[in-house]
Specification:
The chain has 241 residues and is α/β, with parallel strands linked by helices. It has one domain: 3-Layer(aba) Sandwich (Carbamate kinase). It is 36% helix and 19% strand. The chain is built from 8 helices and 11 strands. The strands form 2 sheets. A 9-stranded mixed sheet has the order 4-3-5-2-1-6-10-11-9, sandwiched between helices. The chain has a two-stranded antiparallel sheet with strand order 7-8. Helix 1 (31-45) links the parallel strand 1 (11-16) and strand 2. Helix 1 crosses helix 3 (73-97) and helix 5 packs parallel to helix 7. The structure holds adenosine-5'-triphosphate and the ligand O=c1ccn([C@@H]2O[C@H](COP(=O)(O)O)[C@@H](O)[C@H]2O)c(=O)[nH]1. One of its GO terms (molecular function) is UMP kinase activity. It is an enzyme of class 2 (transferase). UMP binds at residues 57, 77, 138-145.
Length: 241
């Protein structure tokens, strides 16, 4: 790793897709991914970047898959939000093992396991270079953790949302469905909306646009990519004005 490189951001929010955490059985949590992502996060914290993380739950439960088996949609979303806390607990523990100071906050009360969301405290901890993991999404059903990521980025005054996902960036169509889809390197908010590129749910995306939070969509499975992005290397797809 090139330690002479300079950071281009002071405070970032990383959205970690739950799916990226899944193991080879397509469920649960992948041990190797956890350790690797903790290493990647440590590298950027050591650059002096203030980091918060919004963690998804798709490796464990998504509301939509539970409604498909007959669970009421509000209850299904509650289960999905709880799944994000499970992932958050795992990430907090691995960061601790890697000697990265971190703090897990849940959007709803889970006494005994982690603290509840407190914006003042989150800002103070971030200023002291402590990584904040935001679990529990927005705390409300009918949303996703993409909305939580944009919301927390606005609240914590983060300069960018780094959306780590399992594709290389934003494509002209879902690359998992259309193999000849082309990847964009740079897009405006308007282009994403006009072209109906479904990389994030609409409510999340509108928040980012209205509060002028740029988004970088990148492949979370590529080791070291986070470091490249925060030191100014163009990777994935950058969305802004
Ligand atoms: N235009 C597009 N460009 C890139 N990916 C797209 C596009 N449209 C749909 N996708 C799909 O979006 C997915 C990204 O999902 P994402 O990482 O946000 O998961 P998530 O559902 O938010 O998180 P979780 O796994 O926690 O539920 C990719 O796997 C890709 O198949
Ligand atoms: O604010 C929120 C965030 C999430 N949910 C539910 O949790 C699951 C998992 O989140 P992902 O963003 O898919 O990783 C999601 O499918 C919702 O069911 C929520 O209700 N509110």
């Amino acid at each position: 790793m090139c330690i002479y490189k300079k950071k281009v951001y002071n405070r970032v929010l990383i959205k970690l897709s739950g799916e990226s955490l899944q193991n080879e059985k397509k469920t649960g949590i992948n041990q190797f991914f956890l350790y690797r992502i903790a290493k990647d996060i440590k590298e950027i914290v050591q650059l002096g970047i203030q980091v918060s993380i919004v963690i998804g739950g798709g490796n464990l439960f998504r509301g939509s898959s539970l409604t498909n088996i007959g669970v009421n949609h509000i209850v299904a979303d509650h289960i999905g939000m709880l799944a994000t806390i499970i992932n958050g607990l795992a990430i907090r523990d691995i960061l601790f093992q890697k000697k990265v100071q971190s703090y897990l906050m849940s959007s709803f009360s889970i006494k005994g396991m982690c603290s509840s969301f407190n914006l003042d405290k989150a800002r103070k901890l971030l200023s002291s270079n402590i990584v904040i993991i935001f679990g529990g999404g927005t705390g409300n059903p009918c949303f996703t953790t993409d909305s939580a990521a944009c919301l927390r980025a606005i609240e914590t005054k983060s300069e960018i949302v780094l959306k780590g996902t399992n594709v290389n960036g934003v494509y002209s169509a879902d690359p998992k469905k259309k193999l000849n889809a082309i990847m964009y390197h740079k897009l405006s908010y308007k282009e994403v909306l006009d072209k109906e590129l479904k990389i994030m749910d609409l409510s999340a995306f509108i928040l980012a646009r209205d509060y002028k939070i740029p988004i970088c969509v990148f492949n979370i499975n590529t080791p070291g990519l986070l470091y490249k992005i925060v030191t100014g290397v163009q990777e994935g797809t950058f969305i802004g004005y």
